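Practice problem 4.
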């Protein structure tokens, strides 16, 4: 089942894709101009990659959990999806993405770090899914 992960930000939306629920690949991030444009761009990616499920990063357990869940649910509603939407803990995914990049991306504001963060969110989602199957 092809899966798309979303690292939802106010300026950029990081995306990552798994064609087989094993491999997680960062995609080109979306530079967010407004929520309608951002939702349309994500819908286009979902259609292009024939995605069967979406995992949206949410800061679970932190002070901002309620706010990030609300924003994620609102954005998912804008997508008008007829496929399952899951929420995955994104705690420290941005810091982990920065460590993975190890300064190779500089201070790029093009969304590459956001998509690396989405890749980490997707890897966590796939690990959780696998654990639920065998655990």
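Answer key:
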């Amino acid at each position: 089942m092809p899966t798309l992960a979303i690292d939802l930000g106010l300026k950029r939306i990081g995306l990552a894709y798994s064609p087989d629920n094993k491999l997680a690949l960062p995609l080109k991030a979306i530079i967010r101009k407004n929520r309608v444009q951002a939702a349309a761009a994500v819908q286009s990616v979902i259609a292009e990659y024939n995605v069967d499920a979406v995992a949206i990063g949410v800061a679970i357990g932190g002070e901002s959990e309620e706010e990030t869940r609300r924003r994620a649910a609102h954005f998912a509603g804008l997508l008008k999806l007829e496929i399952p939407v899951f929420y995955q803990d994104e705690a420290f995914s941005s810091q982990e993405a920065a460590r993975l990049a190890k300064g190779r991306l500089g201070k790029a504001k093009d969304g590459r770090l956001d998509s690396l963060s989405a890749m980490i969110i997707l890897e966590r989602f796939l690990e959780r899914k696998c654990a639920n199957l065998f655990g």
